[in-house]
Amino acid sequence: MEQPITQVQKKTVLSGIQPTSRLTLGNYLGALKNFVAMQEDYDSYYMVADMHAITVRQNASELRKRSIEILALYMACGLDPEKSTLFIQSHVPEHAMLNWLMCCNTYMGELSRMTQFKDKSAKHADNINAGLFTYPVLMACDILLYQANYIPVGADQKQHVELTRDIAERFNKAYGDTFTIPEPFIPKVGARIMSLQDPTSKMSKSDPNPNGYISMLDEPEVIVKKLKRAVTDSEGEITPNPERAGVYNLLSIYSACLGKTIEETAAEFAGENYGTLKTRTADAVVSMLEPIQAEYKRLLSEKDYLGEVIRNGADKARARAVKTVRKAYHKVGFDSYKL
Ligand code: TYM
Question: Using a 6 Å cutoff on CB, does residue 212 contact ligand 1?
C-alpha cells in the first residue's frame, strides 16, 4: 500500500540581539542577514533580548523605546511577522521561569570561562553583578525554550551556544530527554567584522570612537567617510590574508554584502589600490543599507501596527515556551499542571 505523504516538520531557529544601542554592520552581517535568509525554511523565533540588556545599567524609557525600534529594524531587514515569530524577550515570562532550573544545572567554573563575561566585567568594573555572570544561562534558556535546532549568530556567540549544548545534555542525562541540542549557525564570511579603526578588535556598538563602527542607521555620507578613514597597512597590495587585518576586514565586508567568498573578491580587486577597495566597499554597504533605512523610517510611523506585531509575537512565543516549561518543571518534580 502506498504510504500517505506526511509533511516534514520544519526545524526550528532562534536568535536574538540586545537592544543596547543602535545596531552595527557587524550585527547585520554576522547575524541579522541570516535571520532573514533562514525564515523561509525554518520555524523561526527572533527576539529582542531586553532582559540581557539590563546586565548593564539602562535608562528605563530608552530601553523600552529601543526594544520596539530594534523589532522594527528586524522587520525593515525583511523579517516578516507572518513567517517568523518576532517578540520582545521580557514579554514571555517563561524565559525567567526556566532560568532558575538551568542555573541549578550550570557550574560556576563554566560561567567563569566565558570570554564575554571577562570582557564585560573588565569594562564595567563598578557593576559586576550576578546577572552579568549568569547571562549565558539565560541565553541557554532562550534557545532551549523553543527547542531550537539552529542558532544564527556571529563568531563571538559560539562559546555561549556550546555552553547551551553542555547544559542541555546535562539536564537530559539527569532527568530524561527534555531539550533539543542546538547548533550554532555561523556565516562563512562576516562572522567577525572588525573595528575600522582597530581591525584587531571586534566592531562593537559600544565603541567610544564612532569611526570604528558603522551603524545600520548611519547616513550614506557618514558610511563613505568612515570607510575612507578605515585603517589598512602600508603594503599597498590587496590579498586575502587574515594577518593583514585592516585589508582583510574590508574584503570581508565587501564579500559579505555581496554574498561572495573572500577569494573571489580579492581576485576582483587584484592590482587595484586601497582607495578603490574602500569606495566600492562603501557603495556595497550603502546600497545594502539604504532600502532598510527607508523601510525602518516608514515602519516607525506605524505605531499601531508595530504594537499588534509585538503583542501577537509574544502570544505565539509564549504558546511554544510554556510547553517546554511545563515539561521541564514536571521532570524536576514541580507540579507543572498548575501552570
Ligand atoms: P549581541 O547583541 O552582542 O549581538 C547580536 C548578534 O550580532 C553578532 N555580532 C557580530 N557579528 C559579526 N561581527 C561583529 N562585529 C558582531 N558583533 C555582534 C553577535 O554574534 C550576535 O549574533 N547574547 C547575545 C544575544 C542573545 C542571543 C540569545 C543570541 C540573547 N539570547 C539567544 C542567540 C540566541 C548577544 O549579546 O548578542
Answer: no
Query: How far apart (Å, rounded) are the C-alpha atoms in residues 61 and 72?
Result: 17
CB 336 within 8 Å of CB 330: yes
What does the alpha-carbon distance between residue 195 and residue 159 come to, in Å, rounded to a whole number? 21
Active site residue 205: yes
pLDDT at 6: 60
Quote the CA–CA distance of 99 and 10 in Å, as a whole number: 26
Helix boundaries (H) for 146-273: 158-175, 220-228, 245-258, 262-268
CA of 28 to the centre of ligand 1 (A): 10
Residue owning the nearest CA to atom 4 of ligand 1: 17
How far, in Å, is the centroid of ligand 1 from the Cα of 284?
Answer: 23
Closest Cα to residue 229, out of 273, 278, 269, 271? 278
Residue closest via CA to ligand 1's atom 31 equals 139
Q: How far is the CA of 16 from the centre of ligand 1 (A)?
A: 7
The atom number, within ligand 1, closest to the CA of 156 reads 20
Would you say residue 1 has pLDDT above 60?
A: no
Nearest to 53 by CA among 85, 23, 25: 23
- Which tens digits make up the pLDDT trace of 212-270? 999 999 999 999 999 999 999 999 999 999 999 999 999 999 999 999 999 999 999 99
280 lines ligand 1 (CB under 6 A): no
